């Protein structure tokens, strides 16, 4: 336990994260601190292709550094593999026998290069330049087998510490300590929340998932604004900065500044990552005054499955004309939920989420 605690402390003090990549380009291990620099959770990147995170122009350089001789072979399809080597799914990846590889203490196995990684926290280019410094070492415990069933020998893998090229400023360090992240389905249903988010919002991950759609946590006066940015994110991959109010467990509203991004797997959108920074009420109020008040779409027609509503909602615009103030003529209670279900409103839709909110919190 002491050794594990020391390791965690060292990783937190390190200006970067640890990365272990196999010769095939699969991320065998990443320290949890990758989330502080790229925005991806540790479990989201492990056993995934590292090339999905690297800028297309830097992929050949990274592939070159994975090879012990800085010269990865490109075996044309249909040709037999060189003697002593077996083909894998990737034609450029080969399996070497131990006597064909240099010893681990060979100085030529040291690596020091720069690549641009996809960064969910970056609001400009979407990529962060990282310096990867380490060496190629034998990766044991793979237990991979060849086509004939024999166990393959351990292969060299890249063990590196990834650090940003530009050192963070004091302001960035302070801001980073306040940032929390949540993970959602494509319809914004919560899936996970990091430790800081649990402290700030007060919910456990189970409580977040039990509430259904994530729009049930969004202030009724901010739902259309957030939904508009949600639609933009589904079309472009990023929402841009979005300032809105989240409901905490103690029924208080917390202003946050968020950036929402799509995360792709095999070229298809898989889930949403929301990076959020708490704001004081004065900051939130300033953003609210600058917000355009036009309605991007109506509840009656909606947009995409998330906002599906087959019937109009009488009196629904009144909730927004009051700009978040409680409506005296209508209670957002269980009876509204039952009535909305009878009217054919999907409780997971934007309209259903607002109807399930409790007026008391406003």
UniProtKB/TrEMBL annotation:
Mind naming one GO cellular-component term on file for this protein? Answer: nucleus
What this protein is called in its record is AHR protein
InterPro entries with a match to the protein in the record: AHR/AHRR, PAC, PAS, PAS-like_dom_sf, PAS_fold, PAS_fold_3
Q: Which SMART domains match?
A: PAC, PAS
Query: Which cell locations does it reside in?
Result: Nucleus
Q: What is its main location?
A: nucleus
Does the keyword Nucleotide-binding belong to this entry? no
User: What PROSITE patterns is this protein classified in?
Assistant: PAS
Q: Does the keyword Transcription apply?
A: yes
Output the CDD domains linked to this UniProt entry. PAS
- List the top taxonomic levels of the source: Eukaryota, Metazoa, Chordata, Craniata, Vertebrata
Keyword list (alphabetical) reads: Activator, DNA-binding, Nucleus, Transcription, Transcription regulation
The biological processes this protein is annotated with in GO are: xenobiotic metabolic process
Which gene specifies this protein's sequence? Ahr_2
MF (Gene Ontology): nuclear receptor activity; transcription cis-regulatory region binding
Q: Which residues form the PAS domain?
A: 7-73
Start and end residues of each stretch annotated as Disordered: 317-345
| Matching PANTHER family | ARYL HYDROCARBON RECEPTOR, ARYL HYDROCARBON RECEPTOR 1 BETA
């Amino acid at each position: 336990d002491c050794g594990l605690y020391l390791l965690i402390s060292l990783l937190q003090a390190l200006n970067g994260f640890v990365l272990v990549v196999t010769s095939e380009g699969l991320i065998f291990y990443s320290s949890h601190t990758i989330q502080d620099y790229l925005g991806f959770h540790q479990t989201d990147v492990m056993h995934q292709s590292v090339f999905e995170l690297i800028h297309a122009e830097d992929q050949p350089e990274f592939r070159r550094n994975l090879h012990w001789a800085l010269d990865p072979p490109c075996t044309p399809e249909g040709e037999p593999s060189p003697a002593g080597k077996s083909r894998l799914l990737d034609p450029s990846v080969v399996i070497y026998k131990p006597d064909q590889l240099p010893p681990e203490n060979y100085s030529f196995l040291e690596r020091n290069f720069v690549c641009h990684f996809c960064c969910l926290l970056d609001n400009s280019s979407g990529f962060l330049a990282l310096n990867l410094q380490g060496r190629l070492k034998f990766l044991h415990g793979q237990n991979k087998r060849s086509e004939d069933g024999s166990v393959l020998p351990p292969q060299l893998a890249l063990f590196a510490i990834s650090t940003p090229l530009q050192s963070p400023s004091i302001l960035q360090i302070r801001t980073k300590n306040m940032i929390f992240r949540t993970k959602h389905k494509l319809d914004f249903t919560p899936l996970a929340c990091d430790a800081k988010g649990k402290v700030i919002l007060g919910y456990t991950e189970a409580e977040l998932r039990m509430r259904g759609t994530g729009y049930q946590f969004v202030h009724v006066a901010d739902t259309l604004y957030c939904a508009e940015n949600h639609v933009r994110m589904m079309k472009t991959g990023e929402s841009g900065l979005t300032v809105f109010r989240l409901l905490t467990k103690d029924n208080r509203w917390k202003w946050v500044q968020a950036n929402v991004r799509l995360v792709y797997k095999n070229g298809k959108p898989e889930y949403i990552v929301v990076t959020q920074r708490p704001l004081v009420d004065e900051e939130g109020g300033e953003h609210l005054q600058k917000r355009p008040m036009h309605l991007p779409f109506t509840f009656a027609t909606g947009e995409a499955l998330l906002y599906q509503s087959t019937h109009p909602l009488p009196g629904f615009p009144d909730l927004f004309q009051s700009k978040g103030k409680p409506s005296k003529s209508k209670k957002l209670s269980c009876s509204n939920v039952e009535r909305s279900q009878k009217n054919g409103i999907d409780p997971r839709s934007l309209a259903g989420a607002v109807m399930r909110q409790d007026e008391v919190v406003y």
